[in-house]
Amino acid sequence: MAREIRFNAFDMNCVGHIQQGLWSHPRDRSMEYTSLAYWTDYAKRLEAGLFDGIFLADVVGIYDVLSGSPAPALRGAVQVPVNDPMMLVPAMAAATRHLGFGVTANLTYEQPFLFARRMATLDHLTGGRIGWNIVTGYLDSAARAIGLDGQMAHDDRYDLADEYMEVIYKLLEGSWEDGAVVADKAAKVYADPQRVHPVHHHGRQYKVDAYHLSEPSPQRTPVLYQAGSSPRGRQFAATHAECVFVNGQKKEGVREIVTDIRARAEGLGRHGDDIKVFLGATIVTGRTEKEARDKFEDYRQYVSSEAALTHAAASMGIDFDKFDMDEPVETGKSQAITSNIKAMDRAAGPQWTKRKLIEQMVLGSRQPPLVASADQVVDWLVDWVEDTGVDGFNLSRTVVPECFDDIIELVVPRLQEKGLYKTEYREGPLREKLFGNARLTDRHIASTHRHQRG
């Protein structure tokens, strides 16, 4: 295998992200999340380890499904309090030269005209290192926060997203031509009005009549990330995404998703390698297996089962307090993350119980951790890449910063020795580092919205 393995750090601008309860570990620093120095130090560490990027998740509602109350989430810091991830990016970018930044933004609650300007601004300020994780949301509490009664149906949200992306492409790709900025001081002409075009979009959900306010940034459109694994989500990914995240399943399940999304992309005129797939992974490692096991046993003392259930309840749309420990959980039809329910069905069988769910969440999440020596971790990473076709890993934090320090100190050098990890960064914007080109290719649907001069 000659393919380079890629790493993103997976985190959130909050205290408790995925591994619920580990923020209470004495060595964990995530309570410093309100400090800019915490994040700039974080970014420097990751760049020293040649990580491709830091991927920042986000939610805009509170987890109130378990017991029908926000109290468990507030007690356990289950992604609340949570601050805006975009505010962190300029500071982290100023502290680094190469690290990429994937930020989550819920298009359901963002007006495309202003959001396009925000993305262009971040792309300028980072020198082209910004990516956007496209999400449509899964919390009714978020919908209520902006005056709606509840979320749209799961597939309807993707229909909305398709139109949203069309507007974004028109603004970022089609409004300003590449030669529009003249910057001629002598003639006192900054932009050629003939090369700046209005966007007229009158669709089912959006109406925009405007000029995009930002001049073209290094990438124009940010690198596009997406995480949907449902049939509708896969079609959306095949159409729009450049980087796709998949989460904890068996190899055959991941391989099927990867193969299907790439086949769908090829059916739309794209190439299979236009999409890079990152597998979510939780890794606890050490120089020896015993060292890793000891660390894992230390970590698990701080896990909160209540907080883990709180997160699972919201992401699956199921109030687990309505079920006894050994009563089969009735999943029914949910407007939350349907792929999470299917993943649990595959992991524990269709008649799984709350007890089985809790037993699976050994480090406070549904993602089973890999607990292994650094050499074993390398073998595991290589096996997953070879057997499933994924390109890299979205590494979920456990106890920060030591969880990433362990990867950088112990795992990265071993991968480099095998020729499976970069020894220096490629120059250029994030998309160029990932794909070899700074702008979206003509194979991408966004290219149909570029202005063609007659």
From TrEMBL:
<dbReference type="Pfam" id="PF00296">
    <property type="entry name" value="Bac_luciferase"/>
</dbReference>
<dbReference type="InterPro" id="IPR051260">
    <property type="entry name" value="Diverse_substr_monoxygenases"/>
</dbReference>
<keyword id="KW-0560">Oxidoreductase</keyword>
<dbReference type="InterPro" id="IPR036661">
    <property type="entry name" value="Luciferase-like_sf"/>
</dbReference>
<dbReference type="InterPro" id="IPR011251">
    <property type="entry name" value="Luciferase-like_dom"/>
</dbReference>
<keyword id="KW-0285">Flavoprotein</keyword>
<dbReference type="InterPro" id="IPR016215">
    <property type="entry name" value="NTA_MOA"/>
</dbReference>
<keyword id="KW-0288">FMN</keyword>
<feature type="domain" description="Luciferase-like">
    <location>
        <begin position="29"/>
        <end position="391"/>
    </location>
</feature>
<keyword id="KW-0503">Monooxygenase</keyword>
<protein>
    <submittedName>
        <fullName>LLM class flavin-dependent oxidoreductase</fullName>
    </submittedName>
</protein>
<comment type="similarity">
    <text>Belongs to the NtaA/SnaA/DszA monooxygenase family.</text>
</comment>
